[in-house]
Amino acid sequence: MAQVFAALGEPSRLEIVRHLFTGEHRVTELTDHLGLAQSTVSKHLVVLRECGMVDVRTEGRSSMYSLPDPDATARVLDAVGAWIEARA
Questions:
Q1: Among 72, 66, 61, 62, which Cα is nearest to 48's?
Q2: Hey, is 34 helix, strand or coil?
Q3: Of 44, 52, 63, 71, which has the fewest CB atoms closer than 10 Å, so is most exposed?
Q4: Residues 6+ apart with CB under 8 A from 44
């Protein structure tokens, strides 16, 4: 659990996760969306993969990134959001 919260604690990684709710994306698509260098996005994806937040599959020469369980991910983010609101 600590590994997941540490991964989501970085704003760019949280934005990657949020963007993956729209569907699968290649690194280049995530790079364009975030305005970050490809190497930076790739490093963030490694962290997210290591804690199980994203999956990857190969399509030709490309790697496609997605959320393994979007509903469960949404529940986690919603619960944290509700907790933050309750403390405000």
A1: 66
A2: helix
A3: 71
A4: 10, 12, 13, 16
Contact 17/53 with Cβ under 8 angstroms? yes
Interatomic CA distance for residues 17 and 20, integer angstroms: 5
Token code pair at residue 15 = 């934005």
Domains of the chain in sequence order: 2-87 (1.10.10.10)
Digit-coded pLDDT (tens) for 30-85: 999 999 999 999 999 999 999 999 999 999 999 999 999 999 999 999 999 999 99
Amino acid at 77: L
**What are 5's two structure tokens?**
């919260």
Please say whether the beta carbons of 29 and 67 come within 8 A.
no
pTM: predicted TM-score of the whole model, two decimal places: 0.93
Task: Calculate the CA 11 to chain-centre distance.
Answer: 10
How many angstroms from the chain centroid is the CA of residue 80? 15
